[in-house]
């Protein structure tokens, strides 16, 4: 038998331990290859979509590469630790340390070549399906399958270099010592580990402070907490698993009524040892799971913003013209002509907002004519407004502001025109985007409006004109007014947007860009989160199977003592459930409180709720974790009972 054959047989013989490592590596290569296929796709010619794809996929590939490097380092260390007895026997039989390092290098490269080949093949097989999903997201007419050397070269080169780094550095993890110590393995190390009460209390304190600050945050401090809380939570999580949990278990052991009951003593005592042995692994799983939850949650909140975009922008098109705008008629005729050509149903209402100073607040107040407001309201299907002379209504800038404004009753004097108005509550519907008319807008009776307008005309008051297009099928307007929007974009890039005598807003066009961007980012994030999720489960899988021989011996002793299969499963459940669901539960808590802070940010930016999307994210991860647990438990029970 040659040295390479010996290395190959070692990999095959330890396939049970390497299974999850191989699966996670294949999945990482597959996702990386799919990203590369989209990155180099020749059909993505749209400049904006191409930039999104390149930036998103490029960033995802860098994150995936770095995480996979970390994942492989940790996994390889676990494998070498599990095979310490095997290495001890080889050294005892006369193998040199240099030969052992060469053996590990060859074994790792065997797995690496197999993972790269399998992952690249699977990635190309599913490329067409991947392109179909991306095509629907970015609304491209076609995204055909293609064959090019670039995605293959990038994937193979990246992961080949990664496995070579692992293969070279991996032998460092071999413990140097006597062969007898290696042969005894971890049997000599099992026992009750110590812990620090101080760090235990600090872990609970740090997590409690973090949760309290996240739950009670406000707009003024939330940005600062984004930099302060992650390090505090990370340190608190580490101390929680290394010291706080052993402290809590010690408290339980000191309570004989809780501890000295049936199989509870066995489960708690064994759990205490496993907890201290696996504390760092639990910490890593928690952080990785939290990153997965947060990445998908944040991206899902972006799609929530896109889905509620219509509520924030009720108009299909909007055009604002200043008095000196010579292109006003040309632009309005162009917009009307393009809508009629499409054809797209619409209602057009022309406004001339007026501005005066309120004696009540001393602030400028914007006024709109009741007849124009009623025309626009009827096009939405809302009830019209009825106002007598001297009466007015607030026009809420957003749905959330209605309740506060509706309870207000204000008698004010318009200082410039000397017109007195009695503002009684607010109109219950939002008709304009919040940034158009301002926070202090009222609707005037026709007679009062004409008085203020006459004063403005006599005193050369600046009057701008606002054209409101209500388009029921507003998403079809993405191609309306492109030339106007282009001129605005050019002026913005040149820094001359304030010099233009007009402004144009096309929510349909903006929504198509926002929807494409956020949907593509969510899709990229989901694939990355799946890698994180699979890796988090793999960490637990590695730890279970590296101690499988010791567990089999322990349960053999219990079986001889007369334990039944039902009691056997009960003990296994009590040992496996904490290992699978406790780190996940802590990550769930971290993410839930982080999402409370995220909701505060969204409330300040757009007044939208992200509860529905975040609940779906957490429920989805919960279901996947349950399925993963039963799958691993099934194989674990089979191995413990001696099945192969």
From TrEMBL:
One of its GO terms (cellular component) is plasma membrane. It is found in: Cell membrane. The keyword Secreted does not apply. This is ABC transporter permease protein YxdM. The chain crosses the membrane at residues 20-40, 52-74, 103-131, 151-174, 204-229, 235-252, 281-302, 518-542, 580-602, 614-632. It comes from the Bacteria. Residues 62-174 form the ABC3 transporter permease C-terminal domain. GO terms for biological process: transmembrane transport. Belongs to the ABC-4 integral membrane protein family. The keyword Cell cycle does not apply. InterPro entries: ABC-4_Integral_Memb_Prot, ABC3_permease_C, ABC_permease_BceB-typ. It is a multi-pass membrane protein. Keywords: Cell membrane, Membrane, Transmembrane, Transmembrane helix, Transport. The gene is yxdM_2.
